[in-house]
Design goal:
With about 50 residues, the protein is an all-alpha fold. The longest helix has 17 residues. The mean pLDDT is about 80.
Length: about 50
């Protein structure tokens, strides 16, 4: 995803925000943790947007 594709970046950020809100992002991270752990201690970092 290119930073200059503002509409697409906003769309993806909106999907991620919705997933944070409904808990589905955390469920995915617990199911497939990036670090190989069981995911029990992971919490996604807060979102930081420019605008």
């Amino acid at each position: 995803m290119r930073p200059r594709q503002i509409d697409f970046v906003r769309f993806v950020n909106g999907v991620l925000e919705q997933m944070r809100h409904d808990g589905s992002l955390l469920k995915l991270e617990r199911k497939w943790p990036e670090d190989g752990s069981d995911g029990a201690l992971f919490a996604p970092p807060p979102a930081e947007y420019r605008d």
